[in-house]
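Appendix B. Extra example for self-study. Work through it before the problem class; the solution is given directly after the inputs so you can check yourself.
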Amino acid sequence: MIHINRNDPCPCGSGLKYKKCCMNKMTSYSERQLSEQYFRKYRIKLKTPEDIVGIKEAGKLVVDTLKLCEASIKPGMTTDEINTLVHEYTISHGAVPAPLNYHGFPKSVCTSVNDVICHGIPCDRKLVEGDIVNVDVTSILHGYHADANMTFFVGECSDDAKKIVNVARESLKRALTVVKPGNRIGDIGYTIQEYAEGQGCSVVRDYIGHGIGRGFHEAPEVPHYGRKNTGIELVPGMVFTIEPMINLGEPYSRVLSDNWTAVTTDGSLSAQFEQTILVTDTGYEVLTPYDL
Ligand code: MF3
Ligand code: CO
Ligand code: CO
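Solution. Structure tokens for the complete assembly:
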């Protein structure tokens, strides 16, 4: 074992002093062990401080994009117009819209109206007063992804619409409270399922949250249903989405002939909110922060 002093030349070969270079970047032996173990066992890539800065920058752009959509959505607007807004805003900020051409997805954002659970394709359909529309934005900035979505009301909406949107929002809010080291992935799904079903709604099983970083969809899988104290243990440096899709009726989904649009089988309303979350030493940090 060789000891390096603060003022020694940095062993990385930069020519800088160690203290001005890698000293503060060195991860401890135990952090490295955990990182290797999580990758070996679960294919989960724990994030470095540098990764987290990158995802957070992408996250800020995603939230700004969603706020732009929120301010623009009104009766008469088409979902294609939302797509144009998201596409141009993303590109003009030096980022790439991750959905475009992702496994063949034809547009830059997902727009899911009323009984569409997720993966709605923007088109010439005009939004009308009383619709609910989920806008799901994923941007790649400097190689890092961030993914978030919100469900918006179009003008004045029914009590059913208000109910499903509020239950979806509250499901995500409650899920965040159990994100901390030592808890498990199953605690997240349990918390959501317990609450949403308690409100007489149902949790979609066919689509789940996911790890995110340099990849759009990384390990682990994050179901929005489950049992307490089961699944992978949460550890600092994990970054994943929580994105509960909640239906007013049955939890079942079916994909339309466009091979993307997932709708409720019973035609009931569906709503969703999504955030990209970092597990910290003491709890969590939202990397796509907006008020729930
Ligand atoms: N943004 C979605 C998610 O939350 C994924 C959309 S994939 C696409 O994971 F191809 F439909 F864009
Ligand atoms: Co997602
Ligand atoms: Co998303």
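Self-check: Residues 111 and 135 are 5 Å apart (CA to CA). If your reasoning did not lead you there, revisit section 3.
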